[in-house]
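A favour, since you know our structure tokens better than I do. It will help me judge whether the discrete encoding reads sensibly. The space below this message is yours for that.
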Amino acid sequence: MTLKWSVFVELTEIYTFIGNVFLGLIGIAYSVYVNQSFHLLHTLVYMLAIFCFHVFANAFNNLKDYHNASDAHNYKETSNTIGRYQLPLRLVEMTCLIAIVLFLMCGAYFFFQHHWLLMAVGVIGFGVGVLYSSGPAPLNSLPVSEIIAAGAMGYLVPLGAFLANQTVAGIDFSVLVNLLLICVVPVMTMFNCLLANNTCDLEEDIVNGRKTLVYYLDKPLAVRFFQLVCVLMFVVPFFLLLTHRIAGLPALLIAYAPIAWRGLQPYYQNQLKRQTFPLVIHHMERTLHLYALLYACDVLLKLVM
């Protein structure tokens, strides 16, 4: 049996991969800003590695969620992709295996390029991806799941893109800290997506024994916290501007704030996975995309001027 394309897309959630492209753009732009370093082949291999890991992580998480789901309700049949399409577990396992082999091949390329720091980042990212839904205490069942996963995606992906275009000798700690500050907005967008997802899934998660941050906050406070993060993500670029880590363009992200706030009103009223959660994905993705593009243009302007 083979996977239909539509089922493969849902199983691996590759429709969300575009976010990784914009995260990679931040890292590439930062590399150009630091020392005007850009390597096309390294960048392509790195983005291929990210794509393969994206496929692996989402298929693997679906597989582990299927195995770990409680029989007390119909989660497997109604919510999990594997159960809804009655996919053979062997087929999903082979999808994971092929994706991780390709990922490791990309890692071998950087091994022979002596990119040790990049490989270390890859190991950390791989560990977070695997432990997110497996092990004795999966991350997705803990109150730290949102911040760890958001940090891994929002910072490690740009960091890897930056390192792929650098030599180890040209990197110091302050450069990495500066990139971390630039990535605060992407981390916040990822955090809000995860927080909203867990808010919508709260009742289901309780049945499955998951105690995420939302479990301790409860839905009303989780929505308030979501709103606070929304406000902060549009304020952060001004802090970066005042501390001279960016020029003016990323601060223009504030123009999207009222659009996002109005667009998220249905989610603030009702946290529904199929009806209002897609609005969160839409506006958080738009925020990330705009920020990445503004930052890249900011770097280009600095080079020209």
